What we know:
Distance between the termini: 38 Å
Strand content: 5-15%
Family: Belongs to the sigma-70 factor family. ECF subfamily.
Largest sheet: 2 strands, antiparallel
Protein name: RNA polymerase sigma-70 factor
CATH superfamily of the largest domain: RNA polymerase sigma factor, region 2, helix turn helix motif
Strand order of the largest sheet: 1-2
Order of helices and strands: HHHHEEHHHH
Domain RNA polymerase sigma-70 region: 25-87
CATH topology of the largest domain: Rna Polymerase Sigma Factor, Chain: A
Helix content: over 70%
Structural class: mainly alpha
Shape: globular
Number of helices: 8
Number of domains: 2
Number of strands: 2
Low-confidence stretches: 91-98
Domain RNA polymerase sigma factor 70 region 4 type: 125-174
CATH architecture of the largest domain: Orthogonal Bundle
Keywords: Sigma factor, Transcription, Transcription regulation
Mean pLDDT: 83
Amino acid sequence: MEINEAIKRAKSNDQKAFNFLLNLYWDDVYGFQLKRIQNENDAEDVTIQTFSRAFDKIETFDEKYTFKTWLITISKNLHIDLLRKEKNSITQVITNTDKKAFQVLDESPSPEDILITEQHLAKLLRDIKKLKPHYQEIINLRYFQELSYKEISKQLNEPMNNVKVKLLRAKKLLAEIIQDK
């Protein structure tokens, strides 16, 4: 399949075209992020978010530009957003006799937060059960057992790209179920 054809087919929601583009550009985007972040798991997460955002917005892609450049730009912006969020979690710097200390927000949950989270978790689990079993399994492995893509690939005995695509699809379907409520 040619790149321009794949993009056209992806714009018409062709899953095979999405897989083709993901397989073709995964290493480029992942390598770009790995150089910036220098952490494999975080680089994988940002790369998946990049493809998710790109595929959600693929109809806005202008063929005058290179698809790879477009993906890298999305990836760079996601990384910048991530850095901003991390920066905002540190509230202020306190200086004490040449020593610097960071005052970090107390993010430990209160008893009320725990109760609310448990209720939300129960609702989320009910929504997850509405997915097909293979999507339930991949969400469980990634988010509840916190396995890496490589570990999931080994456990399911599937290529890593299949795992990435399944997870991307499972998240989209779950988001649709939650939004429909």
